[in-house]
Amino acid sequence: MPESDFEILMDFVLAWEGRVFEDDPDDPGGATKYGLCLRSLKQRAQSDYAWLTSIGVRLPADRESIRALTERQAYRMYARYYWDPLDRFGLGRKSRGAMFDTSINCGLQRAVSCMQRFIGTEEDGIAGPVTIGVARSYPDKELASGILANRMQFYERLVRSKPVMKKYLRGWRNRVNALADFLGKF
After folding, report:
1. Residue 164, Cβ neighbours under 10 Å: how many?
2. How far is CA 116 from CA 12, 54, 76, 100, 125, in A?
3. What does pTM read for this prediction?
4. What is each CA distance from 124 to 44, 108, 114, 130, in whole angstroms?
């Protein structure tokens, strides 16, 4: 049975995010495993506690919650928080892939802002009917490329405003370039 687009993109995501526990003091997200960070888990637990515990996530959220995450839990969380919300956008495969990975690395609101900056709609981070309608009018490959170009510009602005983040810039650039190549064959 062929893999779904979600599964194919998760292979890409986990190749870049890794499958091990890390706790880099310069990472604003805190402890991380499978690319899922403590800061986000704490936020999600406030509004989605029952679902998270139903899939076996250890709460209240702390470093050990992240350390204990399984790959299956990570897949389910990526689907719920990053893939499924993109359903209503109705984007093509490449654009959805660009939005998915950008949402993971920068947050959904930032991903929408990257798209809005490219398509020329109000840059408010909200994917309303105007943004979605204009985005759908672009060729899939062109929209995906625009999202990724604006993602790279975001990283460069971030490093200028927070120089401690410079140590991540090369990796971010490599990931965006790898994603562009990946999506080109997708």
Report:
1. 10
2. 24, 36, 28, 15, 8
3. 0.95
4. 22, 12, 10, 12
> Residues 44, 81: contact at Cβ < 8 Å?
yes
**140, 156, 173 from 167: Cα distances, Å:** 32, 12, 11
The answer to whether the CB of 89 falls within 8 A of the CB of 103 is: no
Closest to 78 (Cα-Cα) out of 173, 145, 3, 14: 14
- Residue matched to tokens 């702390």: 62
In this structure, what DSSP letter does residue 37 have?
E
pLDDT for res 46 = 96
**pLDDT at residue 176 is higher than 90:** yes
Q: Return the residue matching tokens 């798209």.
A: 115
Give counts: helices (H), strands (E), the chain.
Answer: 9, 2
Q: CB within 8 A of 72, min separation 6: which ones?
A: none
Q: What angle do CA 167, 170, 175 make, to 5 degrees?
A: 125
Pair 59, 44: CB distance under 8 Å = no
pLDDT at 20 over 70: yes
What does the block give as tokens for 99? 């939005």
Identify whether the C-beta of residue 150 lies closer than 8 Å to the C-beta of residue 138.
no
